[in-house]
Amino acid sequence: MIRNDKSGAYTPLFCLVIVLFSLAGCSEYRRTGVSESGVVYCSEGDPSTFNPQLDASGTTVDATSHQLYDRLLEINPKSNDLVPALATSWLVRDDGKTYVFQLRRDVQFHTTAYFTPQRSLNADDVIFSIDRWRLVGHPYHQVNGGEYPYFASLGLAQLIKEVRRINGYRIEIELNRPDSSFLANMATNFAVVQSAEYAEHLLAAGTPELIDTQPVGTGPYKFESFRKGSYIRYRRHEQYWGGDVAIDPLIYSITPRSSMRIAKLITGECDAIAYPAHSELQILEQRQNIVLDEKPGLNVGFWAFNTIKPPFDDARVRRALALAIDKDTLINAVYFGSAERAKGLLPPTSWAYQSSQRDISYNPVLARQLLDEAGIPKGFSMDVWAMPVERAYNPNARRMAELIQGYLQAIDINVNIVSFEWSTFRRKLQEGTHDSVLIGWSADSGDPDNFYRPLLSCSAIFSGTNRANWCNEEFDKLIDQALQYTDFEQRKLFYHMANNIISDDMPLVPIAHAFRYQAYQSQLQNFELNPYGGVSFVGVSKK
Amino acid sequence: MMTSYLLRRINLLLVTLFILTIASYALAYLFPGEALQNLSGQLNPNDTTYAALSEKYAMDAHPIFGFFTYLGHLLHGDWGTSINSGKPVLDEILSHLPATLELSTYALFMSLLIGIPVGFWAGIRFHRSVDYAVMTGSVVGFSIPVFWLALILIMLFSLNLGLLPMSGRISLLFDIPERSGFIVLDILLSDVPNKREALYNAFLHMILPTLSITIVTSAVVMRITRRSVADVIQSDYIKAAIARGLSRTQALWRHGVRNALLPIMPQIVMQFTVLLTNAMIVELIFSWPGIGNWLLQAIYQRDYPAISGGMLAVSAVVIFFTLTMDVLVRALNPLKRRDVHGTI
Amino acid sequence: MAQSNFYQEGHYPSPFQQTWKEFRKSHIALFGLWIFICFVLILLFAPLIAPYSASGQDTEALLLPPAWDPSGTVVYLFGTDSLGRDMLSRVIYGSRTTLGISLLMVVMAMLIGFSIGAFAGMSKGLRASILNHLLDSIMSLPTLLIAIIIVAIVGTGLTNCMWAITLALIPQFIHLTRDLVRTEWHKEYVTAARLDGASKTRILFDSILPNMTERLVVAGTMALSTAILDISALGFLNLGAQAPVAELGTLLSEGLELAYIAPWTIAIPGAAILLMLMSVNLVGDGIRSALRYRLQQ
């Protein structure tokens, strides 16, 4: 049997394996006897909580927001219009500051192993959910950290004056000033509604912290179990108000490496995957049984300078560094061409996009000249912080940092690439010790304010989304003024003026607006890519 | 004789475990950050919790007293809390360890099943073409880095041929409640309607990880066996047996097998620890929910209570295993009974 | 050996010559030695051999397949990675890092292990007994496991890994030296030297050491193979050398990201590790069986 070559020694083993395969008839191995309606979604990381109010990260939102919860309103991904969800109708009073919401009746909360609801959704639940993040004195405000990053970055707690219960199914929200982005914010992935009854129950049991780890919501799936680093298991919510849910169970298989996710999609271990790597899209396109959806993303990847740390407080230095890199090459090497070159913060799909915005072009000679003017010596060293995870706006910050390292070498600047584990990274970033960082932003609503305010306003420095630590009063004033108007054309003018300030001062170099991708097996039906982030399995079914 | 030997071994086991716990306690101080946090796993405790924890771990007392308090907690099954998952470290270990043991057992079994007969064959045909072929194969097998081999197998069997799954122990769509932690046993114990399919699915998941480890380990087992058999064949008593008129096969079968296999048992047992390390790496590649994967994640996340607990558990398992095997080998091999002091 | 000799007395080859003669007989061991010499040449002259620098990026040529692929070019023999770096040069520099560091670690471990082992071998009593027990426990743990634990404590990085693996390699040298010194110590030639009044150190270096060099070398090759495997495993696990450094294990883990579209970024560094380990193992095997043969005579 064994004659000549090295593999000979393993002949018995291979024989065994081959026998086994023939037993299997080489059929598709994974679908044998498993419930046909089950779906495995391979996500990129663990959610840090099961309540998206507490964490603005895309990973948490993708895993929880559209599975467990509903919002008052939804944004229609196709038309960008607001559509009814838990609120069947709403109106704005004449003062432009008061909103009235009529709630849907007979919306059932999840019945789970740990809680059986006694009543359906009413005004108390909505008020509880808003007051929790809005009022510092609320009994649940401090539970599980007491940080509500999304609402804090937009100053929503300060915007809302009062939330009133009119009757069991009608509430009224009064603002301190008119804000044309308010309704859109109430439709974002973060404005979820939790159960007030469950909250009372937990408070009485003395375990309020369970509200976000053993969640109860009204969404299409209910929580069953979660094993960190491994999986989340959701079951179908039988009494979902939006109609029958076709998928059961829904499993999130946590697979941090993008190459692993793609491989698992190919082998059929995943039905759908999060963030397919841009480098491997071609392979997916060639596959018959895999659907690859592409949509222009509402995001921006950028290189932000820490503008309170010398010498990056000098606009000339920032401009020089911006001139020293070739964005087109970065886009090719990091996004593999599946992104649009960014001129400013807003992607071209936004209604406030300014096609005439000034862009900066690659010019290392001018860059060195500017650095000389600013008195930066040759051989100066700086840090570039690169995110350790892939995000829609930057699939591989590390690679981008290595390329930037190469470019800056050419103008005699040494670059140290700094990276930490993701939660440590964000914490250290908040401490503001970085020189510059490669990061980005994915919008949560279609409103342009959702880019300008969290990324560059003064108040966002404290809420931790303004990575440039850049504070410009003129800029803040412009974006505040824009919100006073409901007319798009008028708001545009303010945003264009704000764009000019950014172009002049260069607190960050916008690099790319990446396309968003979603890849899944063709058996999955109606699996839509949501431009505002968040993965939704509402209405999805399996052939 | 045997009793005194056993006592000695048990003594050694206890001393070693004791040293390991000292190491694990010392780690809490050696790791970056605050010792109390590294011991308990409580992140940013408030003042009352802090005082309670400080009291619990006797932080203000002399470190030696602190160590014995810690040892007490360990013995009571309180290994601290994992920072990463917020669950007790011991629970995590107990839920991950069976997966590793399961994988290692299959791999060890396969390696012996393949390695010993092939090595035996090569030993009999010492310095002939079969021997050379097997030796060449085993040098290659033994030189392949296991992580590379695992990747190659994935690329071949999972991605290109699409025959085998590449992650986990079973499709997540099967909802198998965890009882023993050994997947096959759990399936049998569970009351899922489709047991046969679940078993088959689990079996398919096992093939590639087991194969990766088996190839490397069986190559080593092969080498060890071949060497020993070759020595036995050239020995005088086999020659004498043949001279007395036994056929070659008879001589080998009656006198060779036992004499060739017994002396190499300790060496083969030693392979188990190497195999376990390989299993830890392979687990990471195949997302196998075992202790190695868990420990490496703990290292990436800088989850110190988990690292020290994991270290303690893994080394305890390895040492316990080697010592048990050592005792067993001695019981089986009279030649070994003479030297009382352990040598490995 | 030259047989024509004018003198009466025959030529007695030294033990080393005998071993070498025996070693040469095995073609496969010799083959291993040649590969190993190639790796050593790479280690010494990497900058001269490599066509490009390890970190030089050619942004015009990203993810180019190797030359034998229809869409590859001869300019990049082994293709390029996702940053347009030449794979051949990266593998050459990677082999240099991996082998160089492994050799360094083995030499350090050998020196330290030898000193402790010699001391232990010459001393008796409680100290030796404690050392014995400790060694037995530590030696039952695989080096990689010890290294992983040490890295977990001191933090990731190439230097930390070097310390970790060196520490993990030391016990086996202590063990070997101790055993050898102890057996040799009671042999007649040592007794003779002792009767002559030689000091312990003198006996160790002049009498015992020459008798154990070959076995140390065998142990060294085994340790080298372990060290190479461990350092690349740690690199692969992202615990060792970090990204811009070209190290074979790290190259492999970088390639993982692109495994499917650029299989060569995995295949080539892995094959280099395999080749390196194989050459070391073949040489080790060769020396061992040559030594065994000589001792049997």
Shape of chain C: globular
Number of strand segments of chain C: 0
Strand content of chain C: under 5%
DSSP summary, beta strand count of chain B: 0
Secondary-structure element series of chain C:
HHHHHHHHHH
* Radius of gyration of chain B using CA atoms only: 24 Å
Q: Give the helix/strand class of chain B.
A: mainly alpha
Termini separation of chain B? 20 Å
Strand content of chain B: under 5%
Q: Sheet with the most strands of chain C?
A: none
Regarding quaternary structure, what we see is heterotrimer
Helical amount among residues of chain B, as a percent range?
over 70%
Secondary-structure element sequence of chain B? Answer: HHHHHHHHHHHHH
Number of helices of chain C: 10
Distance between the termini of chain C: 19 Å
Low-confidence stretches of chain B: 340-344
In a few lines, what is going on in this structure?
The complex is a heterotrimer of chains A (543), B (344) and C (297). With 543 residues, chain A is α+β, with helices and mostly antiparallel strands.
List keywords for this structure.
heterotrimer; A: 543 residues; alpha+beta; twelve-stranded mixed sheet; four-stranded antiparallel sheet; 18 helices; 32% helix; disordered N terminus; B: 344 residues; mainly alpha; 0% strand; disordered C terminus
Model description:
The complex is a heterotrimer of chains A (543), B (344) and C (297). Chain A is of the alpha+beta class and 543 residues long. Chain A is built from 18 helices and 20 strands. In chain A, strands 1, 8, 9, 10, 11, 12, 13, 14, 15, 16, 17 and 18 form a twelve-stranded mixed sheet that branches. Chain A has a four-stranded antiparallel sheet with strand order 4-5-7-6. A two-stranded antiparallel sheet of chain A has the order 2-3. In chain A, a hairpin with a 3-residue loop joins strand 8 and strand 9. In chain A, helix 10 runs antiparallel to helix 12 and helix 15 packs antiparallel against helix 17. The longest helix of chain A is centred in the last third of the chain and has 18 residues. Chain A starts with 10 loop residues before the first helix and ends with a strand. Chain B is 74% helix and 0% strand. Chain B contains 13 helices and no strands. The longest helix of chain B is centred in the middle third of the chain and has 39 residues. The two termini of chain B are 20 Å apart. Chain C is mainly α and 297 residues long. Helix content of chain C is 71%, strand content 0%. Chain C has ten helices and no strands. The chains are: A alpha+beta (543), B mainly alpha (344), C mainly alpha (297). Chains A and B meet through helix 1 and helix 8 of A and helix 5, helix 6, helix 7, helix 9 and helix 12 of B.
